[in-house]
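Dear Dr. V.,

Thank you for agreeing to look over these. As mentioned in my earlier message, I'm a first-year student in the group and I'm still getting used to reading structure tokens, so any feedback on how I've presented them would be very welcome. I ran two proteins. I've put each sequence directly above its structure. The first is here:
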Amino acid sequence: MIFILAPLAILAAGLLYQSVGVARDRRRFPAPGRLLELGGAKLHIYEQGQGSPVVVLESGIGASSLSWANVQPQIAAFTRVISYDRAGLGWSSRTRKPRSVPVMVDELRSLLTAANA
């Protein structure tokens, strides 16, 4: 019995630790941009600069908009530039939608429309 309860207790402690850490980090490090409500999820978008064309920065794999922190201000010197966090990454909330390319493209399109980009 102890061989079943001990790993479950360790797992529960780890999950609690992670949840508390995530909540603490959200308070300590607020989103630098804005959160837009789109279809049940809040997606984070960070905009800088003015002008046309609008440059959209896409982060790779599991990265967030912070990947562009050094590049975005340089682009913003001559045009409008947007970085964002896909659902479930960075400051964006999770969504129940599958993480497929068509779904993520649709989310980005909706986000840019909501941001008037």
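The second protein is here, in the same arrangement:
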Amino acid sequence: MTTADLHQLSVAALAARLKAREVSAVEAAQHFLARGRAHEGLGAYLATDESVTLAQAAAADARIAAGDTAPLLGVPIAHKDIFVTKDFPSTAGSKMLTGYRSPFDATVVRKLAEAGCVTLGKLNCDEFAMGSSNENSAFQPAKNPWDTSRVPGGSSGGSAVAVAARLAPATTGTDTGGSIRQPASFCNVTGIKPTYGRCSRYGMIAFASSLDQAGPMARSAADCAMLLTAMAGPDIDRDSTSLDHPAEDYTRLLGKTWGESATAAQPLKGLRIGLPKEFFGDGCAADVIASVRAALAEYEKLGATLVDISLPRTELSIPVYYIIAPAEASSNLSRFDGVKFGHRAAQYDDLIDMYKKSRSEGFGPEVQRRIMIGTYVLSHGYYDA
């Protein structure tokens, strides 16, 4: 395989070639930067800086030459623009934060950098991660690379597009109510929404603090396991909601059989997979059910047992979400008032007028709607309603 084919490699395969010094981190970074430029029309990236990326790649090559064997050393990655970064602008897909530069890196960004990943740039997303199509980005919509007339899903649409179009071997995303899982599905890539608290929220621009969670996106579960191993872990000093649970190697079971009764032909024998009946109810599209059933049939071939279960309060999850998420959004986004940082209106009469105009100009329609709903939810007079 030539350098021209690097984008066809999985994270694991690319890492192996970098470790063997068959290709340099600088060459890999240059290749993916060039692909990003060639496919700008997909709207995946909001910011790149070739000098920053190549400096990080050169540092990775130096670590490799010195004998460092970190699993992700030299692997290019791109971050959803909801994570703050020192070396790239951080906008959360909003005009409110146009040009904002953070004085520090988000913990997820820092941990991946320490693992040796090379940052290609920042990825498009729905404004403040509010949306399911990536059409709510204040700058441009991201387009599904399989059919550019269709949406890639959101809010981590740019992250899914970058992986699907081979503009980056791996990306980060965030999931508040499906914002990793849905775009991964729409773009035919793999995304993991980890247990809340597994990955630190420090430096993640907040939407709904009790729901937001970072996760990896890549071409396969094996690739995502490598990324999650680097991303996850306790961060108690910076994030009070971080789980105080030791970091672990999520790749440790790859290629191994499940239990004592498992065999090479049926490596998952002994594994029980619960199927909540409520997930297969009204409103689920026939083609989606068919795809899920086909995947479950493969699990059965591999030895797993399917078990029907019930989650009887499932129907309440959406109304509960639409109380918690907008309420927390209203609270979190109150910090963007034109005073400390972010957009400030050019002309205003007094302090209140500055607040109104700055927020009206800086926030898009979807963000404004959710703030209004959240403010209503939090209003004492409407508590019972």
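From my reading of the second output: The CA atoms of residues 30 and 138 lie 28 Å apart. The radius of gyration is 22 Å. Does that match how you would interpret it?

Kind regards,
E.
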